[in-house]
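Hi everyone, sorry if this is the wrong subforum. Our group has a chain we'd like a structural model of before ordering constructs, and none of us has done structure prediction before. Sequence below.
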Amino acid sequence: MAEEKTEKNVVSINGEDYNLEQDFDDKQRYLIAQVQDLQQKRQAAQFQLDQVAIAADSFMQQLLTSLSDGTKELKEKTNG
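Answer:
Right subforum, don't worry. Here is the predicted structure as tokens:
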């Protein structure tokens, strides 16, 4: 949506480039700043969600391994 280009003060919106200082009024610049901030927050939240998902998967795998190990031990005790 609102993507800041590498050129100073150029913003791309829906594939069209705009000069931040010349093409927008104060309210529009404020809205662009809000969108950019929210995009950064979305990326940060996705980063954290990825970490949580991987951690949860790891703990589930550890639980499944411990259950499997516990089942083996129980079978060995009852067959012994």
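For your construct planning: The two ends are 67 Å apart (CA to CA). The chain has one domain: 2-79.
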